Each structure stands twice: as C-alpha cells, then as structure tokens.
Amino acid sequence: MASAVAFKLITPTEIVFEGEAELVIATGTEGEEGILAHHAPFLTALRPGVLRANVSGSSGQTSRLELATSEGFMQALPDRVTVIVDQALRFEDVDVVQTRQQLSEALERQAHVAAQSPEFAREQSAIDFANAKLRLTGH
Fold first, then answer.
1. What pLDDT digit, counting tens, does each position of 4-28 carry?
2. CA distances from 98 to 38, 51, 60 (A)
3. Are strands 15-28 and 5-10 parallel, antiparallel or unpaired?
4. 100 and 52 assigned to the same domain
5. pLDDT per position as a tens digit, 108-120
6. Is residue 1 predicted with pLDDT exceeding 80?
7. Which residues form the domain of 22?
8. With 0-12 CB in 10 A as exposed, 13-18 as middle and 19+ as buried, what is 13?
9. Is the N or the C terminus of the chain less surrounded, counting Cβ atoms within 10 Å?
10. Which of 32, 78, 31, 77 lies closest to 53, judged by CA?
C-alpha cells in the first residue's frame, strides 16, 4: 500500500474495521469528505451515507470496503482516521425488502410532523440511512 494511514471504524457494539487505508471517504454534514495519509487534523459530524475506503487486506492487497453508515463522527489526524457511527452495515447485512419498508414508514411519519421539529430531523436521518443501505446494494 503506497501511503497508508491507520483506520478504525467503531460502532457501540463492535470494531467493524481496524487496519490501514489509503483513502477513507465518508458523508459529512457538508458533503463527502476524503481523507488520505498525513491529512491535517480534522473533525466532522457524519450524516448517514455510504462509507468507502481503500484498505489493506491480510495478504497486503488493497481492497474496497463499502458500508452503509448512520450518523456519527470522523476524526482525521496525520497518522490515523477514526470513524464512530451508530450503525455500519455491509452489503450482505442489508435486507432490501425490510429497508424499503423502513423507508416508506419514515417518509409517512415525516409527512405528519413540522419541518423544523426534532421529529422531522429524526425521520430525515432514518430516510437517509435507508437510502444509503439501498445505494450500497444497488437498489
């Protein structure tokens, strides 16, 4: 791996990934943020989206890690990147039928609350996470 940085992806229940990455791309509140080795110190809140990283496997080969992630935070330092999210799902963890149902229900609930309310924001987060899961699976 050319120029790698230590990368850790954590949820409340597990360390989803710990290793090295050439590049980590996550969905920040202002859009996608890409992090390379030797990045200036950086901290951002994350929105639900698809996290992508070029990571080093056990054989030393570079592979692409793609996960649907919920809200969280990403910290970049020159020598490491840490992502902390509530949920991180791999392709095989996503049930498309269930996700479509969750999306439909969140859209319905959101339609009945005030646009500036905390409930609206909560439903928007659920909608964004469902859409991220569907994008991850190609739906």
1. 999 999 999 999 999 999 999 999 9
2. 40, 21, 36
3. antiparallel
4. no
5. 999 999 999 999 9
6. no
7. 5-89
8. exposed
9. C
10. 32
